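Why do we bother with holo predictions? Because pocket geometry can differ from the apo form. Keep that in mind while you read this record for adenosine-5'-diphosphate.
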Amino acid sequence: MLKNDTNECSELGADNMKQSWGTVRDALRASVGDNNFATWIEPLELVSLDEGVARFAAPTTFIGDWVSRNFAEAIRREFARAGIGVERLEFTVTRRRGAAAQPHAAARRPARAQPEPARGHDELPGAPLDPRFTFDSFVVGKPNELAHAAARRVGEGAEVSFNPLFLYGGVGLGKTHLMHAIAWELQSNERGLRVLYLSAEQFMYRFVQALREKNVMNFKEMFRSVDVLMVDDVQFIAGKDSTQDEFFHTFNALVDQNKQIVISADRAPGEIKDLEDRIKSRLQCGLVVDLHPTDYELRLGILQQKAEAQARGHDGVEISPGVLEFLAHRISTNVRVLEGALTRLFAFASLVGREITLDLAQDCLADILRASERSVTIEEIQRRVSEHFNIRLSDMIGPKRLRTIARPRQIAMYLSKELTSRSLPEIGRRFGGRDHTTIMHGVRKVEELRASDPQVAEDLELLRRLLSS
Ligand code: ADP
Ligand code: MG
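The structure, written out:
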């Protein structure tokens, strides 16, 4: 239930209430997991608790909605465990001063207090769009520039130039973000396009429901009446025969009408197991672009942007130089993990009233850092690098100075320095007893090349990916 007003904190037992919410929150963190907690529970503020009704302030309608649909049961349960009977949860949307969690969304849609599904689309059974996922908040780097450009083009809503747009990539690389951004963009233009965004799972759910309620005709009509259809995580329908079948027909009908389709998946169409061949080939007909794993620069860019947003939400929290670089370097997994780390850091720092220093980051994020710690050995690096450059493993440690051998060797030295915690002398020993100054020279050389030679940069990124998977 959502209302757009603010509740005063009920005077009575405010301390008590705070305390029990603290207990409940701790329990929730354990039961819903750190990521969910950081995204959904942490932003909530308990404003009152009486007569079995817990009222929360949520920063956006979307968050309130989502929590009430997905976590209400868990919240009630944890309250019950803490000895407090809660029958109902209510969510109000607060526009906190300086709450800049979605500055872009707010700036671009000034007429609306909160972004909401576009007018006239209420009858479309789509999923809600996250107001934070806009083009403005999407950081572009080499790994995602193509996907971003294609998404932009579709977002312009001009003529359909490629159909479908198929976006794929690993978890947390921004597929959903780009899809929502496209939808926001299309809905903000005045042509009144009917945009339907939903996950493949929801597509299936709707379809099964239509079968059960015997109104498949309505289902078909509804899906065929949209201007733009966006289906997220399409790999989900693999192996689900009748859903695939229906999807195929919907897809064809829309393509025939020259309506835009946007699809995402965790892998390329051809690699989705148990997906019918006719669907695979249909999906390959348009533009297929992938989101590559993030590189250091992109991670740093994303961190800088998110840190700014966080800083606006946590008045007065300072962050020491070097912390973001450290995180970009050490957390190489998906962007969601990066975001979670940052959210936690800011929350913690503002709680204890301290500046975010390297020490604090190391303490506060020990678990995340440990989880993304690479356990690569120097031997493994040497093996991978020699395979990649097609040289003999023995040449890694041998004396040859030929450039075709010396260069890969230096690359292996560089990766050893970067991906393991070995010291330079130790690395030297594994490279045939070379001096630590030789290693240092090699590392520097590769650093230079990496900046000046795109081929080297690409080789490094590829090797790093191979080694950390
Ligand atoms: P996917 O759907 O590919 O699993 P999401 O789109 O859900 O990933 O992205 C995970 C999180 O990372 C989201 O909060 C999203 O906003 C953020 N994110 C991913 N890529 C970027 C980017 N390039 N710039 C800003 N935020 C990003
Ligand atoms: Mg997604």
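Residues 1-12, 96-122 have pLDDT under 50 and may be disordered.
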